[in-house]
Amino acid sequence: MSSAKFASVTAGLLARKGEGQPWMQGPVQEPARMPLAWRSEGRSDLRGEPRPAPAAPPPPPPAKDKSCAIRMSLHDFERLGILAVKTGVTRQALLKDALAQFLAAKAEDYGCACLGACERNCGAAG
Description:
Helices cover 31% and strands 0% of the residues. It has helices at residues 36-40, 74-87, 91-110.
């Protein structure tokens, strides 16, 4: 093998972290750095020009439904499935509707739709 094909390993081949460049672009140049005092004051450069205002954060995602598991007999599961097919909705929708009707009936019993889950503590008296 000829030594002309390979570069000799010298200190000139080393670069500090973040300063490495491809060999075809020439020598390593020191990047321009701003003093910490200028960066912490919200200025974009040494002339003191302000940075553009940061973009507003995206709105929070809408609240997702919580999940809850229910165990039922195979017979009830099949009946629920048949009813779901006949009405054209899912089992999940039927269960959510049944739960909403149940909670509405209980809210009438307690005199408050929150069933005591609000700050007014209106369900504690019932």
